[in-house]
Amino acid sequence: MNFKNNKLYIENIEATKIARKFGTPSYCYSLNRLKNNIRNFKNNFKSIKPLICFSVKSNSNLQILKEIKKSAMGADVVSKGELIIALKAGIHPKKIVFSGIGKTFDEIKFAIEKNILLINAESESEIKEIEKIAKTKKKKINIGLRLNPNIDAKTLKKISTGKNEDKFGVVESNFLKILKKFRDSKYLYIKCLSIHIGSQIIDYRPYAKMINIVQNTIKKSKHKFDFVDLGGGMGIKYNNKSKPLNYKKYNLIIKKFLKKNNVKIIFEPGRSIIGDTAVLLTKIIYIKAIKKKNFIILDAAMNDLIRPALYGAKHQIIPLKRNNKIINKIHDFVGPICESTDKFLSLKKYQKLNEKEILGICDVGAYGMVLSSNYNLRTKASEIMVNKSSLRVILKRQKLNNII
Question: Which domains occur in the chain, in start order?
Fold first, then answer.
């Protein structure tokens, strides 16, 4: 996105024209930004040659997954539905990792039948279930075991996954016991140590601590792993004050680790690939002025983008036309849903706005559309892909008749 003559453009197309053509709210993606993000991620880690498995939970649009497939990336999935759509996008089964703590019998059976690369288990009970199903299939299955390292990634509390009080993985003592117990299983190869400490991480130091714990655990286990799955969680810039993760320092830490361990690294990035590719176009329905503030009531709501309500996340909101007429008054950008938490952002000042004007909520490519719902019986937004000067609908706007 960039401004030309005070008008916002997404690639080569004026954003207001997109909103007029397809209506609001609409998720609008830049294909060029997606390709650049993939290229940059690969370049940052090319010296370690990782298997990059895109986190489908961050964005499961089929057309976007087809672009992921074109880039030779794999997929990290956490449900049967995500596995099905990854396969439908053409992603090779041997580039798919199945994560998640609550895989059902049906999901495990399906994953085994599709011969995916790894099922990353998160408890002894899950491993027993995998072994039982593998026995009925007369197959020996490649699995990973997720370690909980008890690390505070210093990210939002609600997206932390690597502390003891979090539900994910097993602590080191149990990890070692499980390895010993299933090492000689006739139906399981424990090929991967899996770990993931949280999301939106912009400091490399928690990752450094994580790698150190992985190294110590491997040393204690005396187990030969083929893969170490380091998860994802790499953060992006949601505002001008924050800094992105220092990939060079993270890469150096991993290179030192690989000198001691002959393993293949797996990454599961989502947000760092897709997060900053999209803007949510939304129209101002009403402006309600009270003494201390202006409520800017939008046609997008928490059912369209729940991150601010769910996590307290803050997304920049920009006008599609700049006018440089600043109003020094609090502006609360809110949605029409009957909840006080249906609020996107509060700013101390903003440019002069008018009803029916279009705004853009930034950096919504990850955990935007995938977390949308029909709350208040509202239809889901459309998704549009911009490729230079061309537009393509990659998901049609939902119609009420399809719901009711």
Answer: 2-28+275-403 (2.40.37.10), 32-272 (3.20.20.10)
